[in-house]
Structures are given as C-alpha cells and as structure tokens.
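Researcher: I need the complex structure. Ligand is glutathione. Inputs:
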Amino acid sequence: MTGPVDMSQPTVFGAAYSVYVRTVRLVLAEKNVPYRLVEIDVFGEGGPPPEYLMRHPFGRIPAFEHDGFRLYETDAIVRYIDETFDGPSLVPDTSKGRARMTQAMRILDCYAYPSMVWGVYVEQVDGPQEGRETDPVKLDEAIGRSRTCLTALERLMDDGPFLVGSRPCLADLLAAPMFTYFRMAPQGQQLLAERPRLKSWLERMLVRPSMIETRWSNDEVGS
Ligand SMILES: N[C@@H](CCC(=O)N[C@@H](CS)C(=O)NCC(=O)O)C(=O)O
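Model: Output:
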C-alpha cells in the first residue's frame, strides 16, 4: 500500500520479505488501517542506510511512525496499533488469555525465529540459493529446537482454532510469517506434517486476506 504522503497515515519502514515487517503489516491490514511502506533493505550491501539508524539504532526492520510518534520493536508497534486504531481487537479478552498471548510471542521471538527461520529455512533454502552449502550439523540442531517450539505452541493452543482461543490475536500474526518461511523448507514441511493442529492453523492463516495482501513470494502457496 503506497501512495501520496498523508502524515496521519502510519508509515512502516522495512522490506516485504521480513518476518517482523510482515507482522506489522498484517496487524494494520486486520485492523483495516491504510499505511505507507517505505522500503529499507537491511541485508543490502553496506547494511541499512545510515540515516535509518536515527529511527532504529540497532539497524533492524521494522521501524514505524504515526503522527510524529516514532517506534521500533515489533511487539511495541503492534500493541500500539491495536490500542490506537478501531477495528477488531487483536488481544484476548481475559488476563489469562493475554498472558498466554505474551507467552506465545516470547516463544516465537526468542526460540522460533532463530531456529525455524534462520536455523531451518535459511540453512536449507536461502543459503543454498545464495551459494552457501547447508551445514548438516547446524540444520540438525535447528530441527531439534524447532520441534521443541512446535510442541510448546501446540500445547498452548488447546483446541484452537487459533493460537490463543477462538479468534486471531497478535501471536497468530507474529507466528504466521515465521511458519510461512519454515514451511518452504523441506524439513519444515515434514515437521509440520507431524503436527496436524498447527498445520491446519497455518492453512487457516494463509487464506486470510491480510496474508494474501502481504504475500511476497509465490513459494508460500501450494505446498
Ligand atoms: N526485535 C526486533 C527484531 C527485528 C528483526 O530481527 N528484523 C530482521 C528482519 S526480519 C532484521 O532486521 N534483521 C537484520 C539483521 O539481523 O541485521 C523486532 O521485534 O522488531
């Protein structure tokens, strides 16, 4: 979603391929909030543009701005969006539900992103595409850690259909981009096939309009 500059419209700085940028865009889309995406490529030669470090001193994506209010760190951004804009609430109604959502988001950030995205997807798919060989030891270790993540998330899920209860929340929107990458790796696909509840959760997420609108690769469909 790009267009003429309207300062009351939120701006997301980042790249469409990024897991965390996609989460912010998913939250905006689920709330029906128009926004601008300003492309910042942190993996390009030389890293992020130096002026971007004013927005994000750690040089990661995304960064966010709304009405002159600048923010970075996905968790802070998505909670701000959820509270600030109309549209369906993306946090559970009860304190126990909200605690579970936070727990799931910490699991995703601290354990799933490094093991499922970097350890499995990048090691098995992205690396070889860029001419780096898969390290079987690293891949094996990441598969073990990914299994632990899948088990933990499945336990939190109870009967679903979403990660925390009966409607999508911020945890689903953080998880879906990570799982989308994971499923593109042969090992990821195999591990998901062993987890029918998470597999059908992902299938439910993939057909949401917000996921379709933010799709960046044709590889994420059909497997
Ligand atoms: N803690 C940050 C993590 C963001 C993050 O790691 N983004 C990745 C792209 S998905 C990135 O910028 N990586 C650049 C790097 O590792 O140098 C957040 O929640 O926003």
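Model: Summary of the prediction. Residues 3 and 36 are 7 Å apart (CA to CA).
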